[in-house]
Amino acid sequence: MALPKRRHSVTRGRKRRSHNALKKPGVTTCPRCDAVKEPHRVCANCGHYANREVIAMEKS
Ligand SMILES: [Zn+2]
Question: Model pTM?
Answer without folding.
Answer: 0.53
